[in-house]
Every structure is written in structure tokens, then in C-alpha cells.
Amino acid sequence: MFGDRIGSVEVLAGLLILLVVFRGPVADAISGPRLQTWTTVFVSVMVQAVPFLVFGVVLSAVIAVFVPRTFWAKALPKHPALAVPVASCAGVILPGCECGAVPIAGSLIRRGVTPAAALAFLLAAPAINPIVLTATAVAFPQNPEMVVGRGVASLIVAMLMGWLWLRLGRADWIRLPHRPDLDGLSKGRAFFSAVRHDVVHAGGFLVLGAMAAACINVLVPERWLQTLADNPILSVLALAVLAVLLSICSEADAFVAASLSQFSLTARLTFLVVGPMVDLKLISMQAGVFGRRFAFRFAPATFAVAVLVAVGVGAVVF
Fold first, then answer.
1. Closest to 98 (Cα-Cα) out of 260, 234, 281
2. Is 103 a residue whose pLDDT tops 50?
3. Which one, of 275, 268, 260, lies nearest residue 306 by Cα?
4. Whole-Å CA distances, 205 to 122, 154, 231, 308
5. How far is CA 262 from the centre of its chain?
6. Is the distance from CB of 284 to CB of 212 less than 8 angstroms?
7. pTM for this entry
């Protein structure tokens, strides 16, 4: 019935059937308060991320199938160092979050865009698009400078990381997963083949990242945050690490940052700059789309640059 081999879609269908059959024992197993909290956080991360992941996957397939390779050569400057700021600013026009930007960046590299420019777009798009900046303005009505600080700091980090990759990055650190050859297919079949490939590949790592974020939320005591808020340096580092652990979608993280009123504005700006660029689900997705060698180098470097730039911009803006 399933052909010669069982794929991930068939495995997922089997798991869903088992959940329906054993829904009673599963409901009893998740009745504990800590497990209920874990389930709530996991479902929240997935609900926030999946629509934007689907948007990014569809846009990635459109780029792969309908946009000719020559378009990128005309749209971006030929010199890689100049392509980085142009690709960073292009993030303003994409109303998506970090989950959708990962497959789009992978598709851009496949279409011949220099990795430095694609990575700059990957970091800028979730942080400086109009939806995110509007949400930040709504969350901080008494501090409009937070919108300026977030936009400027995120754009600087994206460009610095693009240029850093151009200077120090190596092509063999990026290993894009094999995608079925689309050239011999019709436009429609090629589109759905690309969508299915990216949903299965990026979606699986999104689930792993959401599970890790849920575990951290349950295991880290909240009183630790209150203790750290009293120290200016530790408060910045604490919210930077918290942004990584919570893995909140960039469209919603401003409201969480606004609620952390015991922390300084600079610490909360750091939370908003780091979160869309480095978090658990994003690291997991980058490992799936670009390879582990890339993710384990790119994520720590992005974290360090984001913290330094956010603190510098915060010192000027606030």
C-alpha cells in the first residue's frame, strides 16, 4: 500500500493514529501540573511558529521554481561585500518570522546568492519587518525609542555577521540537504515537491527545538530571574540567554519583553535583538537546513555580536 519504503509522512500518520487510539492513557499521563506547563509551552511555540514556517516554505518553493536564476544576479550587487547590506535591508519587506526565514535563506543559496548575503537576510528579516516593529511599538507605548533601537541594532548585527562570514566563513561548513531535482518536472509538481521536502525537513527540527524550549521553561526557576535583574551586567546576559531558551516568535517577543519590567531597557533591547537571531528552535532548524557544522559556529558568533551591538545601541538610544 505504501510502496517500497515508508517515509516520514507515513510515520507521522501512524503516530497520529496511535494518539487517537490511546488518547485516554495519554490524557491521564499529562494531567500533572509540570507536564501541563510543558505541554502549554510546546503547543504555544508550535502555534506561533507553524504559520510562518509554512509561509516561508511556500515562498522558498516559489523562489526555487518560479524565479529565474538570473534574477538574483540582477537584483543584488555583484560584489559580495555590497550584496550584504542590500540583502539585509531586503528583510524589511518580508512579513515573516525566523522560522520562515531559514528555508528562504537556504533557497537563496541554492539559487546562487552568495552565502554572506543570504545569511544577512536570514538574520535581518525576522527582526526589522513592519509587523515586528509595529508589535514593538504597541508593546512599548511609553518608549518609542525601543522601536528605533531594535531596528538599528538588528540591522547592524545582520550586516556585521554577513561581512564576518564573508571574511572567515568556509563553504564546506554549509551542507544543504539533498533536494530532489526539480528541473525535469512541471512547474506545479516541482512546487509541491519543494514544499513537501522543506516542510518535512525544517518542520521536524522545529518540533525538536520546541520540545527543548518547553523543557527549559519547566526546569528553570523564575526566582533566578529576579535575582539577576538587580545586576546591570548580569541582567543583560540573563535576558540574552532567556531569549535563546524561550524561543518566542519575533512577532510576539516584544510583549514578553515589556512584561519583564524589573529589567532595564537595555537588557530588554538585548532580549529583542538576540531572540529572532539565536534561539533553541532556530539553532535546531539551522542544523537541519545548513548542517551541524554551520549551526555550531554561526549561532555562538551571532549571539556574541548581537549582545555587544544591543548594549552599544542601548547606551546611545536610552
1. 281
2. yes
3. 275
4. 17, 25, 35, 28
5. 26
6. yes
7. 0.74
Write out the chain in H/E/C secondary structure: CCCCCCCHHHHHHHHHHHHHHCHHHHHHHCCCHHHHHHHHHHHHHHHHHHHHHHHHHHHHHHHHHHCCHHHHHHHCCCCHHHHHHHHHHHHHHCCCCHHHHHHHHHHHHHCCCCHHHHHHHHHHHHHHCHHHHHHHHHHCCCCCHHHHHHHHHHHHHHHHHHHHHHHHCCHHHCCCCCCCCCCCCCHHHHHHHHHHHHHHHHHHHHHHHHHHHHHHHHHCCCHHHHHHHCCHHHHHHHHHHHHHHHCCCCCCHHHHHHHCCCCCHHHHHHHHHHCCCCCHHHHHHHHHHHCHHHHHHHHHHHHHHHHHHHHHHHHHHC
User: Given this model, what pLDDT does residue 16 score?
Assistant: 66
Cell, residue 217: 521553561
Closest CA to 201 of 165, 184, 176, 222: 176
**Least confident window among 131-135, 200-204, 269-273:** 200-204
The mean of the pLDDT values for the chain is 79
> Which residues are CB-contacts of 249 (< 8 A; sequence separation ≥ 6)?
45, 48, 49, 52, 97, 98, 99
C-alpha cell at 83: 550584496
More confident residue, 247 or 272: 272
Q: Could you tell me the CA-to-CA distances from 170 to 114, 127, 158, 175, 214 in Å, in that order?
A: 12, 26, 18, 11, 33
